[in-house]
Amino acid sequence: MSKTAVLLIDCPDRKGIVAAIANFLVREYDANILNADQHQDVELGLFFMRVEFATQNPACDEAQFRHVFTPLAEQFRMNWRLTFATPTRNVAIFVSHYLHCLADLLDRRQVGELNCNLSLIISNHENARALANFHGISFHHIPITTANKAQAEHRQRELFAAHQINLIVLARYMQVLSPDFVRAYPQQIINVHHSFLPAFTGAKPYHAAFARGVKLIGATSHYVTEALDEGPIIEQDVTRISQNDQLPDLVQKGRDLERLVLSRAVRWHLNDRILSYANKTVIFA
Amino acid sequence: MSKTAVLLIDCPDRKGIVAAIANFLVREYDANILNADQHQDVELGLFFMRVEFATQNPACDEAQFRHVFTPLAEQFRMNWRLTFATPTRNVAIFVSHYLHCLADLLDRRQVGELNCNLSLIISNHENARALANFHGISFHHIPITTANKAQAEHRQRELFAAHQINLIVLARYMQVLSPDFVRAYPQQIINVHHSFLPAFTGAKPYHAAFARGVKLIGATSHYVTEALDEGPIIEQDVTRISQNDQLPDLVQKGRDLERLVLSRAVRWHLNDRILSYANKTVIFA
Amino acid sequence: MSKTAVLLIDCPDRKGIVAAIANFLVREYDANILNADQHQDVELGLFFMRVEFATQNPACDEAQFRHVFTPLAEQFRMNWRLTFATPTRNVAIFVSHYLHCLADLLDRRQVGELNCNLSLIISNHENARALANFHGISFHHIPITTANKAQAEHRQRELFAAHQINLIVLARYMQVLSPDFVRAYPQQIINVHHSFLPAFTGAKPYHAAFARGVKLIGATSHYVTEALDEGPIIEQDVTRISQNDQLPDLVQKGRDLERLVLSRAVRWHLNDRILSYANKTVIFA
Amino acid sequence: MSKTAVLLIDCPDRKGIVAAIANFLVREYDANILNADQHQDVELGLFFMRVEFATQNPACDEAQFRHVFTPLAEQFRMNWRLTFATPTRNVAIFVSHYLHCLADLLDRRQVGELNCNLSLIISNHENARALANFHGISFHHIPITTANKAQAEHRQRELFAAHQINLIVLARYMQVLSPDFVRAYPQQIINVHHSFLPAFTGAKPYHAAFARGVKLIGATSHYVTEALDEGPIIEQDVTRISQNDQLPDLVQKGRDLERLVLSRAVRWHLNDRILSYANKTVIFA
Lengths: 285, 285, 285, 285
Prior knowledge:
Four copies of one chain form a homotetramer.
Chain A: E1 3-12, H1 17-29, E2 32-41, E3 46-55, H2 62-75, E4 79-84, E5 89-95, H3 100-111, E6 116-123, H4 129-134, E7 138-141, H5 149-163, E8 167-170, H6 179-184, E9 189-193, H7 205-212, E10 216-223, E11 233-240, H8 247-270, E12 274-277, E13 280-283
């Protein structure tokens, strides 16, 4: 039986990497390379590669691959990650008042765009419960106050553990996560910010955009790091506005951007198409 | 003989403005309204209007219009400006090392997109001279040093006076204008900044965009005010970049954006399609 | 109490229309013009106007307006339509296998983007029933065969009558409506076609786009007329594809375009922002 | 001394191609793979690859490469092409009345965007002569009538031979080339058509777009084949239009699209980034 796996690599750029990897996969696993994509960051002298391959070799699993691949990885000083197509990842979605990104993700899951289990919806409000129930997803109402924040995060992390969550999506979740929380899930938390970052960080970006008189508004999806709105950008998009557009129109047009950039980020993450380095991302799309 | 004029108005929003203006034009000038466009800024309670009209009434000139329109303008507390289609405006272009925006504007003038006299090209370098000569435009090399800056600006302003310049275009001019200079030409200086403002103000925006890892780069044309890169935005555009794009690719893709946003701003200004208020612009395009 | 109404006009272009209408509204209703927008089709010599106004005059209703406005309308040979903000319209959605446009419209209704009652969902399949039930919308499964088509359409029209439907949205409905049916609802049926019309009319447009090797794919929303895929275009959008995109990727990217162009068309229609003439549309957006 | 070369390959998709090529380049030339990009057309079962490599092996030239690579190429049934970075290609530009694309290409050559010699400008009109002279490019006025067409093409082909032309760019050239002419330069003639193909083929596409009431207009660059407007599409772009845009506005907005799609196609061709197959193109951009 054939297995499919994705190998993501970054390392200092030097001669022979592509051939070395291709040879390794053919020699060890008689692999069929389904897709190979590579890039350089010339400024930083870095090399990035994504290889999707199929093999019929039953020996090939994560442990065995680590064993045989490590010498090559060390030789080229690679960071690397191997993911098999199965099993699918377990995803938790955080949401507050605005449900449009949540509804969009649920619909895309339905349509088959998102290769994952949507296991868990957590909100500091009650209003997403009906939607969660309709889709048969476990819903947890965890209110947040300054007093109970640590406790609330503890409860959230228990739920993650119970559901073996490996991706957390902040779908317009209006609470700031603690540094501890963020550090516990590196490159596993995706947020959507409703501006074209780095413009208009912080609260009320549509108000700020309106006040500045920009001619395009944007939205940004990014991995969450301890520095608010400063994590590696995954995707951005913009749309034109005019003087006909008042503040509520910006908010409405912005919702479409938020849906698009967040859903693309989630899909790419789930398909192992994102490599993050130096606070930037490489997207193998 | 028929004359065409453009009336631009902004005032506090209240009932009856559209009817009052339409009536005035019909009553005084038996005018044919060729185009009327209006907008509100709901936040600020402001009203904006652009009316393009034709009249055969020979009495209608700037002085006479001012005389008969003033009572109405005062009643509604209007800021207003009337421009007749003739004569065409005289434009000065400032340029430094990079000539792509200059070449683009010259070509658009040739094609008939820009309704103006390109009267003057001023540069702190020599390399635009051949292009200026080819197009038969007066070229002046005015080097800038910290020592001679005041003197250089004095010389520039003499040239403006001699050529009756009423629009100054900074086509990638790499010198900062003095506050005095800027104040002398309010809403008559258009600059292009090679980023999606307000992101990446200041020097080397493509470097900054590359370092931040944004997924789109932009360019912005704006009126110059004393606060660097903070004047009213006239036009913006963006283009997608990917990890395949290294710094020189950003610069190359950015040139196309710079050409587009600067030329649109110049064209709209020349056609009296821009109204500026509260450090923003309304574009009647 | 103040009422808000939208007046849509098209007529041959000539002098004095704007003033005549503004005067009429002020004189008859002491109206506050909230928004006025006008356009010309220079080729055809036509004039278009949308006026949104508020009045406190209790006399102003549809019948009385018709009575007092008719002389002016006849003088300028106007086609015109007046709509009061209330009551909201009743909408029927037709759907087949693919539910993404339906789910999108339902979510937008929830968020408050669509000013209407979603009264009715009709499908030739069963799979939309759960979604309809969740949103509390009347669902009717009406299978279509060549044999029962006339009968099925009869049943559909009975439902429209019962629900006082004034807009029909074909949200990826895969059946062709009969000419009789189409004629019965002029400019009241909106369809989404999954190509950039007029390219790739007919069945399987993504396959055709893939085969032709285009670099952008599109989607189009339009009013349905008897000529398939040839009604007045309301909105179009496109997205870039690359050689990385295989047929299923086109379908997936296309879904986002379909959601966007269909929902915009429905919103504009519901807000009386569309004027249709000469098989084209003017959008007052 | 190091040489850089680009290898473009298409062949039936099967296991082992990437490894085979990487191995070959390392074994024969101790090559440094600077860039490798590959794609599949899943529908047609085809594989495409572009490899840019550097080698210090002095033996590596076109003849020697052909000799040692042929067995591998035959094994995988490859179509392939090898190009060394030097010497640069010689380009001829054809132009008629409209000069904006020509002016744009000349400016881009100046700026350094186009890696080629612009050797020759041919026109059926005189009006490009001044521009050609300014840029020091050989200009030939070759009028075309139905009577002299064969003769004119003969003259053109003599000029190509004399200047060793290997790319012909039709920069809004308004004459149809004969089948013989087209066959003589397969995938060496690039045209720009002022519509979003396959919509609006043939003459006056802006008129047709205006009449149909589309909401976006486009432009397309493509390789010229015997079937008019049906060659492999290289690049397309679109821009939004509104009811404010009359026919001359479409023409003006279209010029920007024409400049962009034609210049991108020329640049990609010159950098060996285009692979053409099955009347489509793969762009390694």
